[in-house]
């Protein structure tokens, strides 16, 4: 039987709430979230199923001016993701002035066929939201949706409009599949999410995580830092910080999981293409 089935990508500046919205729509954590920009480094897919069909959401890294090899790759991943999807959604923060960063992203997509999604309406006053919708109207996008990824306000309207744009055909993913991230990758991301929540300043950008052994229930995850001096900051006094990270990750895994965290110095990994390749960025 044919259903509606297609792909939607979320693009926008870092921190506008792309990952939060994908998670809210898919009803589970498919993409990690933090209050630091550039949390998402790879393309993450989450699937939304309804009686009419399915929408595959492609979450992307925020598009920004790259300063490292990692930044360049992450940007390329995001820009590349607007090809071969049925609808591109440009996310804008309702509370931040519509600025050059947003315009830069808009210039790199076919904005006249795109949906503009103004997110974080829960934080904006009516006047602020109205002004923002007026400001983004210069984009002459196909449609505009004010939403809140946190309260869910406006999300059903967005989903209904997106479903209308999905082509008819066979479903891409089985009904019980919500994400295409494999389990090891997902655990590595959970570790990074916990680290992002507690690390300060530039350190979050120096951290990468990868699962190196998966012998259930034992999972070994490496935390890569760029410099020897960063090692102590990740481990924390008496190993406290790392212990807490491990506990918080474990709570989100299947019962019985035993997660082993190792901090490894890999000098300037962000600048090394072979490392980035291995990390899947
Ligand atoms: N108040 C509010 N905060 C949000 C909303 N969506 C995202 N956030 C917050 O904005 C920050 C960035 O979110 P994230 O999804 O990682 O942004 P991304 O970089 O665009 O993927 C996080 O602290 C989120 O909790 C929203 O609708 N309302
Ligand atoms: Mg993100």
The CATH architecture category of the largest domain equals 3-Layer(aba) Sandwich
CATH superfamily of the largest domain: P-loop containing nucleotide triphosphate hydrolases
Query: Could you give a short account of the major beta sheet?
Result: 7 strands, mixed
The H-and-E topology, N to C, reads as: EHEEHEHEHEHEHHEEHHEH
Through-space gap between termini: 37 Å
Total count of strands: 10
Radius of gyration from the alpha-carbon trace, in angstroms: 19 Å
Q: In CATH terms, what is the fold-level topology of the largest domain?
A: Rossmann fold
The fraction of residues in strands falls at 15-25%
Tell me the domain tally. Answer: 2
- How would you sum up the global shape? globular
Mean pLDDT over all positions: 91
The SS-based structural class is: alpha/beta
- Total helices: the number is 10
Bound molecules: guanosine-5'-diphosphate, magnesium ion
Helix content: 25-40%
Low-confidence stretches: none
CATH class of the largest domain: Alpha Beta
């Amino acid at each position: 039987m044919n259903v509606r089935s297609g792909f939607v990508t979320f693009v926008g500046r870092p921190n506008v709430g792309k990952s939060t919205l994908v998670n809210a729509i898919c009803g589970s954590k498919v993409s990690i979230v933090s209050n630091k920009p550039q949390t998402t480094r790879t393309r993450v897919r989450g699937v939304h199923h309804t009686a009419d069909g399915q929408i595959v959401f492609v979450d992307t890294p925020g598009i920004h001016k790259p300063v490292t090899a990692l930044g360049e790759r992450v940007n390329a991943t995001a820009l590349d993701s607007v090809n071969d999807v049925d609808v591109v959604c440009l996310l804008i923060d309702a509370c931040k002035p519509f600025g050059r960063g947003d315009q830069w992203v808009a210039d790199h997509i076919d904005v006249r066929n795109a949906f503009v999604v103004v997110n974080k309406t829960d934080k904006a006053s009516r006047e602020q939201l109205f002004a923002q919708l007026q400001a983004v109207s210069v984009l002459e996008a196909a449609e505009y949706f004010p939403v809140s990824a946190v309260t869910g306000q406006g999300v059903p309207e967005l989903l209904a409009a997106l479903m209308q744009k999905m082509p008819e055909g066979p479903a891409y993913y089985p009904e019980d599949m919500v994400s295409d991230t494999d389990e090891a990758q997902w655990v590595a991301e959970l570790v990074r999410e916990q680290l992002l929540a507690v690390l300060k300043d530039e350190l979050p950008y120096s951290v990468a995580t990868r699962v190196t052994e998966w012998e259930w229930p034992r999972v070994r995850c490496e935390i890569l830092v760029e410099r020897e001096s960063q090692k102590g900051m990740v481990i924390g006094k008496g190993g406290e910080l790392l212990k807490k990270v491990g506990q918080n990750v474990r709570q989100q895994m299947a019962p019985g999981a035993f997660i082993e965290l190792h901090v490894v110095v890999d000098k300037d990994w962000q600048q090394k293409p072979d490392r980035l390749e291995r990390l899947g960025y």
